[in-house]
Amino acid sequence: MSSKKQIGFFEKYLSLWVALCIGGGIIIGHFWGDTVQLLSGLEVAGVNILVAILVWLMIYPMMLQVDFTSLKGVGKKPKGIILTLVINWLIKPFTMAFFAWVFFDKLYAAYIDPSLAGEYIAGAILLGAAPCTAMVFVWSYLTDGDPNYTLVQVSVNDLIILVAFVPIVGFLLGVTNISIPYDTLVFSVIIFVVVPLLAGTITNRVLIKKYGTEWFTQTFLPKFKPVSIFALLATLVLLFAFQGHNITQNPLIIVLIAIPLIIQTYFIFFIAWFAGRKLKLPHAICSPSAMIGASNFFELAVAVAIALFGLQSPAALVTVVGVLVEVPVMLSLVALANKWKY
Fold this sequence. Notes:
Blueprint: H1 9-12, H2 14-31, H3 33-40, E1 43-44, E2 47-48, H4 49-63, H5 78-107, H6 114-128, H7 136-142, H8 147-175, H9 182-211, H10 213-249, H11 253-278, H12 283-294, H13 298-309, H14 314-339
Antiparallel strand pairs: 1-2
Helix pairs in contact: 2-10, 2-14, 4-9, 4-10, 4-13, 5-6, 5-8, 5-11, 5-12, 6-13, 6-14, 7-8, 7-12, 8-9, 8-12, 9-10, 9-13, 10-14, 11-12, 11-14, 13-14
């Protein structure tokens, strides 16, 4: 029964770990600021080497789950795939940009320096243009989603990211008058999506062929979970070691950032959910479709924000707040999807 299903210990308390990382990072930045500044200077083509390694260690384990052989059945039940693509690529990035503009540029004008509002908007845009590819498996499981169909949806999204992320981000940042180096944006996608995706796909195929699917999913994948967790927490600590000064000067900034992100999450979920019902999708497909649209590939958003704007940037702070609010908001949507199960 779905009521007996539970989220993993780490995922369930992810917001707590992020909160602890905020405190730990601020303390480290205060007492060991010189060392942190030294680490921030280790860059290649504008990308911090240490952060690149940590983010890659976060993303590679999730790419191991992607199975492109599942795409051969994509045409059998196209409605769910079409809904996912329309929500994720034709609606979500643009509504996120709109909410960010309304809040950071207009409603928060008295609380946020106008010269920095653009970077806050940029961080939100990066979140909105990166649909979820990992945690959605958890949300699908908790709402009795079809695991095979969810895998197809995620695999299709990973392919679309390769070609759509850069132009959509570039367009929305341009509309909001934010100048970015396109070479850094493209390089970031190659480093944080293309390389781990290729590595994960090759690893997946080779190991499954040699040892079988059961060994791969039950033995091999669990071994990478601690690595991914460590990389995520270490990245967050590093980020807040740089962001500590900004946060202590404006402690309400976390709440201000969280409000438009939460509104966007619920907004997209409701659009996807009721569109799925209108299309007469079964619950096992409608629910994951809504969850994919509502949640974010925050690892990619964090990495690209750092590469484009720097570790101390408001853009990077927005993407990290996205991690902070993701789990409690998505768990509330899981409860809603289960309550509305049909």
